[in-house]
Amino acid sequence: MSSIPVRPDSPAATAGLEKADRILERTEFTPVTKQKLRKLEAVECVRLKRGSASQNLGFASHPFILCGLPVKKPAPGVLLHERRNGQFQLQVTGHPNYGLPWGQDRLVPIFLATLAVRQQRQTITFRSAAEMLDTFGMQQGGSQYRRLLGAFQRVFGATIFFGSDAQRDKAAVIHQVRFNFMAEARIWYSRDPGQQNLPGDCQNTIVLSEEFYREIQSHPIPADLEAAKALASSPAVLDLYMWLSYRCFAARGEERIPLFGGFGLVNQLGSAAYARPRKFREQLERWLDLVRVMWPECPAFISPDRRAIIVKRAYAIRPAGSNHVCA
Questions:
Q1: Per-residue confidence at 87, pLDDT binned at 50, 70, 90?
Q2: Contacts of residue 270, Cβ cutoff 8 Å, sequence gap at least 6
Q3: 8 Å CB contact between 104 and 207
Q4: 326 lies in a domain?
Q5: Is the peptide bond before 70 cis (omega within 30 degrees of 0)?
Q6: Residue 320: inside a domain, yes or no?
Q7: CB burial class (10 A; 0-12, 13-18, 19+) of residue 115?
């Protein structure tokens, strides 16, 4: 693999560059297993497609870029998840029978948003569950199909509250919306993992809720599906990657986002709150290392005072035919 930049406060900064395989040695991709090899192949695919500006483009919705879903499985009986990003607040209420969406369930909204943008309609269709599993590099088999069905049930049953407040001319302006992801879903499930196509003209059909479809149409956030595939089993890192993709693109220069406090990064991502700031910083360093494996030029690093993350304007999604990576 080629060399990639490191954060300014890294021990490797004196040399200026650090080998990708050395980063991988100290991240979640170890030890050497078949799973690691698949991830390395996915990483290589991400970097090759990004280098040639031929990324496989998907889409995500604005609320779930700004605020993440739970990373780990909530405790039994916990049906409310809350996150905040500046003036934006997200509340997710789980269905009492299915619980809150968590972990890899966050791939379902990305899949739905991508199909809605590609098909340009509120009622979306796809031939088989294998299509979604393949989109995100998930192994195909009976257990994975059942897991996918459970994810759709949790996402379908969840109620989303997303609100924003702003100060305009000394008067508070509040915009709030409550919605479900889907209004109707007909998903075929075969107990035979080898049956990838449905009989006859049957198709999986999902009718997105009016509110979710309108949000996707109004604010479609481009996403690198190959990167999502590589990070599918690391939902916290996927959240950070998606957040940085959007935040760096929207940055007007060098910007500082606090790590802690009411508007801090720790309250935006889907990860559980950390008891001590030092633990969150250590975890964030590891996540940033993995993001740089996918996106070597990512201009994000923890500030010297260790209280904020610094970002600059850059493109995680390169325009077709582009030879530049940063604005």
A1: confident
A2: 67, 68, 69, 70, 71, 81, 83, 106, 235, 236, 239
A3: no
A4: no
A5: no
A6: no
A7: buried
